[in-house]
User: Which sequence fits this backbone?
DNA sequence: TAACTACATGCGTATATACTTATATACTTG
DNA sequence: CAAGTATATAAGTATATACGCATGTAGTTA
């Protein structure tokens, strides 16, 4: 059984969890993740898809890889990345739904 | 039906989602959230519980309130905060479980 | 081997933000 | 009203990090 965050956690574990949230807290990284939901892509494809510079995309991919959110697969000259952590889509959808609900509720405060 | 992050999202929505992750990406804020899982607490109690300064705790509580993760209830001289977004515990536990699994897998790479 | 392509990385700069100190505000009580 | 308490905020500093530019490295092809 997995240890639950809600029932007290060591400071060290808390820092790890915060680190993971922080990794997901950058728009460019989230953009990369979003594109990777469609399936495996190489760096050039991600550069085109996101409109970022090659250097910046590469760096963020490194960060995501270090966080074990995505994995690297080298094929000749290209490097393909894909999402390796199955909780990432759940996580994103959970947040997305929560945000939508918040905004809907706020919007309804201005009328029916 | 809530819009899913996994099926393409507007840039604006993506920024909002990133912002929420970023809010959860600070250790002190996560520490406050963790203590609030036990129930409603006022600022002084949170200062004691976390060991932070009053000013810093107050600022982070403001950030969490702005993100609609917690709500403020003023009672006389004290201000009580509590978690208002029900997805927060789910979110934290999801990440926590994922981290644990990662580390367990890594640990097992060093032998049985 | 030379030239080329895809990706990674070192370094500098700009910017965001966490934290501290000091002070302000809001409420209570004498 | 004065003094005290709980919380918020303003201003300054320190630090982290995202980004751009330049360059390095790995692999391919001529």
Assistant:
């Amino acid at each position: 059984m997995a240890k639950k965050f809600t029932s007290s956690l060591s400071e060290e574990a808390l820092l790890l969890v915060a680190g993971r949230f922080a990794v997901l807290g950058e728009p460019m990284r989230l953009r990369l993740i979003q594109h990777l939901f469609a399936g495996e892509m190489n760096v050039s494809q991600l550069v085109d898809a996101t409109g970022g510079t090659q250097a910046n995309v590469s760096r963020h991919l490194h960060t995501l890889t270090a966080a074990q959110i995505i994995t690297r697969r080298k094929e000749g000259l290209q490097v393909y990345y894909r999402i390796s952590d199955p909780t990432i889509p759940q996580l994103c959808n959970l947040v997305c739904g929560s945000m939508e609900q918040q905004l809907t509720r706020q919007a309804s405060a201005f009328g029916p």
In short: The mean pLDDT of chain B is 93. The first strand of chain B starts at residue 41 and ends at 42. Chain B touches chain A at residues 2-9, 13-27, 30-31, 34, 37, 68, 85, 87, 89-102 (CB under 8 Å). Chain B has one domain: 11-108.
